[in-house]
Every structure is written in C-alpha cells, then in structure tokens.
Design goal:
Blueprint lengths: L4 H19 L3 H27 L2 H8 L3 H7 L3 H25 L8 H12 L2 H12 L4 H25 L6 H25 L5 H16 L6
Helix pairs in contact: 2-3, 2-5, 2-7, 5-6, 5-8, 6-10, 7-8
Length: 222
C-alpha cells in the first residue's frame, strides 16, 4: 500500500514521541546530559592535549555528540571553554568538600586539607584549568577568561577555608595567605606535571608547608 509523505511524516513523529516517552527522560534532562558530556570532554581534552590541541571536533568525538549538536549548545570554542570552566570549578569544589568530609577525625585538620588540595591540583580537571591559565599569557582572546578564572579559584579556596577553619586567622590575613598558598601550589603542580616529583622535592616542600600551617592553625582539641 502506498504511504504518502504526510503519513510517513506522521509515523516518524509518532515513533519519536513513543521513544521519548519510553526513555523516561525529559528534553531538559537530555539537554543537561549532553551538555555535561561536552563539558567533561572539554576538560579531558584540555588536560590531555593542552590549549593548542583543543578543538571542537575533538570535544565532539570524545563526548559522542555530533558537531551540529555541539554547536547548538555552544556555538563557539570560547563559549564551550567558558562553560567548561564553570563546570570544572563547581565539580572540583564539590568533590573537595565531599572528600574532606569523608576523612577520619584525625585527618580533619589543616595538614589534611593541604594534602587533599595538593592531590586535587594534580588531577586532570585541575590541570585543565592550569593549562588555560598558562595559555592566557600569550593568547589575547583567552587572557580575560584566564584572569577571571584565577580570581574565581582564589575566591572559592577562601570560601572553603572559612568553612573548614572559621576564625582561625585574622580576616585581613586570609586573602594574602590564600593567594600565596595558591601561587605556591600552582608552581608545584606545574613542576609535578613535568617530572612527577622524581627527586622528592615537591614532597619536601609540602612537608614544610604543612608544618608551618600547623603552627598557624593547630588542630582543635577533640
């Protein structure tokens, strides 16, 4: 039996409706899932390939998303990267606090917090952020985003510090102390990405840093 274009179109639309209902996911959920895959893929590509090797084609491939779908959600490379930064920062903060909350009582102190921060900075998501910050030095288009990124990270670190160690340092010292800590650990993480601490120098610096931090913020009596 001949089926005209209109009836074929109705059949196709009916099939799509059934498929949507059977999946149990709303359009908003599917959109969110696609965006998350794209943003995670962007972070992974940045960590593995660097800014110079990052392309929207590679991101689409890693995310398992068509180029058209990727451009629908993020029309340009900079739009994709900007969204990936916010995604990474939120994820890193949540993962850090969850990990600290899971520590045994004897590790819930400033030394434990620094150990966890150092571990976080050596993971691919943080390395992706570092890659962007370094690339912004010579890329005018990326520079503004990189500057904003550094300030956002510092603000998040300060917020977490105040939550974990309230009133442990005078407020006027917190900003300077966090900026100094961040600069030190970023430098260490860059060196670690090159030599994986083959000679133990980074571990020695961390030991001294934790000793100094423990003098400033001693463990609370149990």
């Amino acid at each position: 039996m001949y089926v005209g274009p209109y009836l074929r179109g109705m059949a196709v639309r009916d099939h799509r409706r059934r498929r949507r209902h059977s999946s149990g996911r709303t359009q908003a959920q599917r959109r969110s899932e696609t965006q998350t895959r794209l943003l995670d893929a962007t972070a992974g590509a940045l960590a593995d390939l660097g800014w110079a090797g990052l392309s929207t084609t590679e991101v689409s491939r890693r995310a398992g998303v068509s180029r058209g779908a990727q451009q629908h959600h993020y029309p340009t490379k900079m739009a994709l990267v900007a969204a990936a930064l916010e995604h990474l920062l939120d994820r890193l903060r949540d993962e850090y606090q969850d990990a600290y909350d899971a520590f045994p009582d004897e590790q819930r102190n400033v030394a434990g917090a620094l150990d966890l921060f150092w571990e976080t900075l050596r993971q691919p998501p943080a390395m992706a952020l570092l890659e962007l910050a370094l690339a912004g030095r010579t890329d005018p288009e990326l520079r503004g985003l990189s500057t904003t990124l550094s300030e956002r990270v510092i603000e998040i670190v300060k917020e977490v510090f105040r939550e974990l160690f309230p009133e442990s340092l005078p407020e006027e010292l917190v900003d300077t102390a966090i900026r100094a800590l961040f600069a030190l650990l970023v430098g260490l993480s860059l060196q670690n990405s090159l030599d994986q601490d083959a000679n133990g120098h980074q571990a020695a610096v961390m030991t001294q840093l934790k000793n100094f931090a423990t003098l400033l913020i001693p463990a609370r009596p149990s």
